[in-house]
Write a structure and sequence with these properties.
Number of helices: 3
Helix content: 25-40%
Distance between the termini: 13 Å
Number of domains: 2
Order of helices and strands: EEEEHHEEEH
Largest sheet: 3 strands, antiparallel
Shape: globular
Strand content: 15-25%
Radius of gyration: 14 Å
Structural class: alpha+beta
Length: about 110
């Protein structure tokens, strides 16, 4: 059960993200149910082998981040001043366990929690 809190925007939001002293509401960005499902999967105790890498990229963009294509299959992800560099794996579309752990650390550093 989620408790509603008032975010910086002044709205009551049941899905409020707390990051230090600042309160970040999901509705401030275009985070839909697919993004919330991906976020829950990233922060799950047991990492799912079925998290699709493009869903992680979509979540980052929805949170106001940027995905920059690098040489080859390299990708640079920027989110609120933090960055994460990784490889897109071919031929599979699923993210590897270490990639999910690294994106979890990135989200924790910028204050995004499920």
């Amino acid at each position: 059960m989620h408790r509603s809190r008032v975010g910086k925007c002044g709205a009551r939001c049941p899905a409020l993200l707390i990051a230090g002293d600042s309160r970040l509401c999901w509705h401030r960005w275009s985070v839909n149910s697919k993004h919330r499902k991906t976020l829950r999967a990233i922060f799950a105790k047991l990492i799912s082998p079925a998290i699709i890498f493009s869903n992680i990229e979509s979540l980052i963009v929805a949170l106001g981040g940027e995905v920059i294509e690098r040489e080859g299959s390299r990708v640079k992800i920027l989110l609120r001043g933090e960055q994460w560099r990784c490889d897109r794996l071919y031929p599979g579309k699923d993210a590897r366990r270490y990639q999910v752990e690294e994106v979890r650390e990135l989200l924790e550093r910028v204050g995004v929690l499920p």
